[in-house]
Amino acid sequence: MMSATSTLALTHFVTLADSFDKDKVTPGVLGFIVFAIIGGAVWLLMKSMNKHMKKVDFEEQPEDGAAVTDAAAAATVAQPKTS
Hints:
Layout: H1 4-19, H2 28-55, H3 64-78
């Protein structure tokens, strides 16, 4: 047999269950925690990427053969074709 307190508590839960829309899905606290962890991971990855990108030297030293080939190609492009 159920006591009066448990019957009263069960009555309150049943009324809350009836007002709950079963077609509406919410992420809840677990969804927020997962989203916050993913956001924190992305922030840490971007911070690490910026640190590594600051170390990169973007100026390339052309090789001897490549410099001659690039200069010849630039001269060919710069001269218009005459027909």
